[in-house]
Design goal:
globular; 405 residues; single chain; two-stranded antiparallel sheet; mainly alpha
Amino acid sequence: MAASGRSFFARYYNWWVLACVCLGSMAFGLPFFSYGALLPYLSSSFYHTSGKVTSQAAMALQPVILLMGITLTGSLSSVLEYYMSVRVLNFLLSTGFVLVVGFSYFINNYVVLTIVAVIIGMIGGQINVCNVARLSEWNPRKSGAANGIMGFFMGMSGLVGSVMCSAVINPFNREPELVNTTSGEAMLFLDDYVVEHTNDIWLAWAGAIAIMFLPGIFILRPPTPEEVCTQDDILSGDSFESVELLPRTKPAGPDYGIKELFRTPKFYILYLIILILSLTLLTSTELYKFIGIEAINDDKFLNLVGALGAVSNAFGRVTWGLILDRFGTRATYTVAFFIQGPLTIALHYSKWNKWGYLANICIVSFCTGIFTCIAPACQELFGSRDISLKYALTLSAESIGCVLF
């Protein structure tokens, strides 16, 4: 009976990997996709502590710093995997991430917030690359769909984080007030309850993240060559008895090394597209509240905008992953590239009607789900060899997008 249980567990190990990666992606995405909802509260908390207003431009820089940390350091995990066990690396990264988020409870000024954003981004980027690499390894023929499912849960983290912000920090829907200062006017939360409970959200997030990371610490690992063949047949609907645990001939396709990657024009075209699309991602996920608060004086509604935007992004990630599996990288990214620009520009004009703004954010967030296709695109265009490093190099395009932003 025990042997039968182990056989069942081993046979469907790729599904356990998928479940752990989904939970880990939701944990990693919790601070990132909820940052936009938290920033106005942090700005108000800093004003209460120091009596000085942190400019909107300075606060808007925080998500950029966070994303740059994610994209610039993600490749480090692919290097560390050569020198230590994946399980050990996963444990160290997960533990470090939880501790840094929990330590954020003590943030009381902009400088400390900036340092924490850098560290969260650095650790989170490595966790993200590890998760994507495990998915691509365990689901070689369904990479787009698997990454789409992972992206769905990552997007849902924005919903969870926004709801937690409202429940912990502002359960009574206190409204921000216009404050006149020597540096200009600013919309700030002056209610004592909101100010006193702002930092509590970090402890709530740390606890939720720790729970979601826990299963992956024990389960996530690279597959053996025999397991790749087995899981590939299971995904294709073959019976377990018919699976031959032998290497099989792969269909003809690119299999570039890292040096060859830099010689192909396809890499630079994909890099440029991701760079441009990253501007839309930053605007819709991190600045929606700062943009909307100028015309919409309803904090609960703006948190709702962030939550529904996260849900739209989650469904968009699944949809784009399925589209990529069906139509390929070129068609998928071409469509996404040409529809997101006008939608992003329209955000400035739609904010004067709150329901129009909500609809616009949801549509833009749905379209930014295309970012879940970066790893499958790399696998299709450049091959699966060193996929984690290829993914990290391509993802670094977002860092340049951050600088331009």
